[in-house]
Every structure is written in C-alpha cells, then in structure tokens.
Amino acid sequence: MAQSYYFGRQHYVPRLLAKVNDALGIVVVIPAYNEPDLWQSLQSLMDCQTTDCAVEVIVVVNYPEGSTDEVVANAEANIQLVQRANDIKNSEYFRLYAIDASNLTKKHAGVGLARKIGMDEAAWRLFQSKSHLKVVACFDADATCSDNYLAELEKLWSTSPETEACSIRYEHPMEGDEFDGKVYQGITQYELHLRYYVQACRYVGHPFSYHTVGSSMACSATAYTRYGGMNRNKAGEDFYFLQKIIPHGRFKELNACCIFPSPRPSYRVPFGTGRAITSYISNREDMYHTYSLDSWMPLKPFFENIHELHQADATKCQKILSMQVPCLREFLKSNRFEENIAEINANTSTPESFQKRFFLWFDAFLLLKYLNIAAEKCFPKVPVTAEAHRLANLLKISFQPNPLSDKCLLQAYRRWEYCL
C-alpha cells in the first residue's frame, strides 16, 4: 500500500509517543517559527464546533541551526503554550501536541520542511486509528477560522470519501487596528491578485485552476502518501504540493467555512503573502502589480482548439503553431511543442484522453512559466486593480466601478467565487 511504501522508504520513526485515539479522523498541522501570537490560532481551533471524530492539533515548533537566543526562547515558550492549551481543553477527543523541530539544517529549514514534519506525523497517526475519516489539514500559526471549520471538513469527507484534497475558502482582513493602514491596503490588492489569477486561468480554460494557500488546504492521509507527501520548499510548498493532486480530478473546494490568514509582513520566505506585503510597504507606489490580462488572452483560443492537435501530423502542428501570437509561439517552440504533441498523440487514442494528457504537459507550472516569460518579454506587469476590473467585465462580475475601490472589487470577486 502507498502508506507502507511512503513510510518504509523513509524508515519513518514517529515523533509523538501519545496513544492514538481509535476515533481520530482529523489532524490539523501548524508550522510555528518564532511565532508571537500562537495562542490566538490555538484558541480559534479550540472554539470550533465539536465533531463526531476525534481531532488532534500538531504544532511543529521549528527553527534553523544557529538561531538567536530569542528565537530559541520563543520556541520553548510555544511548546509550553501548546501543552497549556491541551490542559485547558482537557478532552480526549481534542488533543494538542507540540513537535520540537529545533536546529533544522539551514539548507532545508523553512515552512515546507515544517509542514512535512507535521503532515508525515499526522498521516502516520491517522493510519493507526480505526476511523473511516483520515484528514490532514494545514493551518498557520497566525491564522484563525470560522467555528464550523472542523465540522465542515468532517462533513466533506464523510459525504464525499473519494475526495483526495481540497482548498478551503479564505479571506484576509481588509481593515483593523493590528497593523498599519498600508498593510491592509496591500493585502487587499494581493488577495485581489490571487483571485484574479485563478479566475483568469479559468477564463482561458485551464482545468487546474484552484487556490493553493498553505493555511487553507487539506488532504486525505491516503492521498498524502500516494503522491509523495509534502516537499521541503521554503516557499510555494502549498502550490507544488496541491498541483501533484489536482490533475487527478478528485479535488474539491470547501466554501462552507472560512480561514482568516494574517496580512502581516514577513522576510521569512522568498515569495508569498508575507514577502509580497513587505515589498508593497517598501514600494513608493500604492499599487500591487500582476500579470497583464493581455498575456492570458492568446491562451483562450489556443486551449479552446487543442482538439485540432489530436492525431495532427508535423505539418498540421507547424500550421497551428504559426497561427499563435509571437509571444506564445516562441514559448511553445522553446518548450518542444511539436515533440510533445507527437508524444501525446502516440500515447492517446481519443480526443478526451489527448486533452487530459495535453494538460498534464501544459500544467499549472508550465502556465506560470509562460506568464513570467510573457511579462518579461511581451506584456509587462500592470496594477492589479485595473486588470481585475477588466476581467470582472469579461466575466460579468457585478461590482461598483465608481469610485473604483480595491475593497469593493475584492468583495465582488469573493461573492463570485463563493456564490454568496
């Protein structure tokens, strides 16, 4: 079985010695590195509605080798904090554990490795339980959630047990007293960029277009081991992990509950939310820049007509290639378009199987690569508000254009995605 191979290959040794509740069905994993407000996240989870299955929260308290005394002290305090939270909750059906992941090698230390440590342990423990439910959920140490979060995870996998993974509705705070006003302005534009990106991908017809936010995703323990577990990337670990699962078609969106990630700035990762807000604050312009809608538009007719490539010979492939706009044509040529189409045709017999295999080649990674090259060579990045406005008009998303407000536009995208 996949889990035996996965854990056997690693010679896995469990980190937690606590006995597994036979009813364990959901394990929430939280990476925590130098976190000042972990209690708020733990409290949010402890305040969730009760579930029929038992729940565990595993906090991976981690830091790299050579960390300062302050970081080490914070880690020790958070390990004690988790134990105190468990004592306060005092429930056999809701347990909180801390994993001491101190002095990680600098080469690999980061959020990806921390998630992997916790998710490996979560999957291991779930496979020891007798529950039919075996869900590994990802959370963040500065996030909170609606009180039906755990109940809705349980409901999803109880009613759709074939589900391998899901993205969960999320909403960053657009205002408040915790941060400077520019932070809220920045997170509004950044979340608008995330939603614009997904909807633009869907508009042009790419089938693997879903949100991949680390604090707002979950998977089955079986899928976790089947697809090789979490990676050790220092950023983008969520995108890389989910894109291993999404193409197989058993992926869902859970919109009945909501995660509220923090908008705080951060230098911890090379890209992602924290770094985006940090860059926004230091930028003199009050605008977050995103991929021009013009870079997406050539993809729409290309994807809509890929059936013409089924059983196409070299001459027809060259003709179709010549019909693309220069930016897309050069990108396809540089990625061995004709050779890949020939290989896909050699391994498929129907238009449906051809299309499925085509998008395993032109996947979310290749799409992102195209957008980055298009932004560099053909269509420079532009302010997100203007592009989100353009796309909203194409999609007929209802919003108030006068005055054009980032908040109103983001709220409109949220309503559109979640059918609120």
Give structural notes.
With 420 residues, the chain is an alpha/beta fold. The protein has two domains: 2-191 and 204-287, Spore Coat Polysaccharide Biosynthesis Protein SpsA, Chain A (Alpha-Beta Complex), CATH 3.90.550.10; 295-377, no CATH class. Helix content is 49%, strand content 15%. It is built from 18 helices and ten strands. The strands form two sheets. It has an eight-stranded mixed beta sheet, sandwiched between helices. Strands 9-10 form a two-stranded antiparallel ribbon. Helix 3 (69-89) links the parallel strand 2 (54-64) and strand 3 (94-104). The longest helix is centred in the middle third of the chain and has 24 residues, at 181-204. The chain starts with a helix and ends with a helix.
Summarize the structure.
The chain has 420 residues and is α/β, with parallel strands linked by helices. Helices cover 49% and strands 15% of the residues.
Q: Based on DSSP secondary structure assignment, what is the total number of beta strands?
A: 10
Q: Can you tell me the overall shape? A: globular
CATH hierarchy class name of the largest domain: Alpha Beta
CATH architect. name of the largest domain: Alpha-Beta Complex
Structural class: alpha/beta
Q: Strand percentage, roughly?
A: 5-15%
| CATH homology group of the largest domain | Spore Coat Polysaccharide Biosynthesis Protein SpsA, Chain A
Report the mean per-residue pLDDT as an integer: 92
- How is the largest sheet built, in terms of strand order? 3-2-1-4-7-6-8-5
CATH topology group of the largest domain:
Spore Coat Polysaccharide Biosynthesis Protein SpsA, Chain A
Q: What summary fits the major beta sheet? A: 8 strands, mixed
Q: pLDDT below 50 for ≥5 consecutive residues: which ranges? A: none
SSE series? HEHEHEHEEHEHEHHEHEHHHHHHHEHH
Report the span from N to C terminus.
Answer: 41 Å
Q: How many alpha or pi helices?
A: 18
Q: What is the share of helical residues?
A: 40-55%
- Indicate the radius of gyration in whole angstroms: 23 Å
When the domains are counted, the total is: 2
